[in-house]
């Protein structure tokens, strides 16, 4: 019984550490061309996917069709939106996992002095 309780407590501690490790990042979510996704926030650019290179982060399916919300079309069906994501990142500027996504009004990012205008 004690071993089962100890295992359960260790599992909970591991889970809470993983949840605490997730970062909230808000800024310009850009999808300029097929297979290219990144987030520009006050700390820099966070790559999610690059066409022809790497793998997509876990949870990419949590990002819905951003063109259905407040969105700027820049290239056919591609463009950018303002969003907040709860993510795991690495030291190389990559998003490794996406836990949640919330699309915001374009004006929120446009009025944020810490953000550069999207390219």
Explain what this protein looks like in three dimensions.
There is one protein chain. The chain is of the alpha+beta class. It contains two helices and six strands; from the N terminus they run αββββββα. Strands 1, 2, 3, 4, 5 and 6 form a six-stranded antiparallel beta sheet that branches. A hairpin with a 2-residue loop joins strand 2 and strand 3. The longest helix is centred in the N-terminal third of the chain and has 20 residues. The protein is globular and about 30 Å long. 20% of the residues are buried. About 13% of the residues have low confidence.
Give helix and strand order, one letter per element, not per position. HEEEEEEH
**Strand portion, in percent?**
35-45%
Q: Using only CA atoms, what is the Rg? A: 17 Å
Label the overall shape.
Answer: globular
Properties at a glance:
119 residues; alpha+beta; six-stranded antiparallel beta sheet; 6 strands; globular
Task: Give a quick rundown of the structure.
Helices cover 21% and strands 39% of the residues. It is built from two helices and six strands, in the order αββββββα. About 13% of the residues have low confidence.
Describe the protein's topology.
Layout: H1 2-21, E1 23-31, E2 37-41, E3 44-49, E4 72-75, E5 78-89, E6 95-104, H2 106-110
């Amino acid at each position: 019984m004690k071993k089962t309780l100890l295992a359960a407590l260790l599992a909970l501690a591991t889970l809470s550490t993983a949840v605490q490790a997730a970062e909230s990042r808000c800024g310009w979510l850009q999808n300029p061309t097929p297979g290219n996704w990144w987030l520009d926030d006050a700390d820099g650019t966070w790559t999610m996917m690059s066409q022809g290179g790497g793998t997509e982060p876990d949870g990419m399916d949590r990002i819905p069709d951003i063109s259905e919300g407040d969105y700027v079309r820049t290239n056919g069906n591609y463009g950018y939106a303002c969003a907040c994501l709860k993510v795991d990142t690495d030291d190389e500027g990559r998003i490794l996992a996406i836990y949640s996504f919330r699309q915001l009004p374009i004006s929120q990012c446009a009025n944020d002095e810490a953000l550069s205008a999207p390219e």
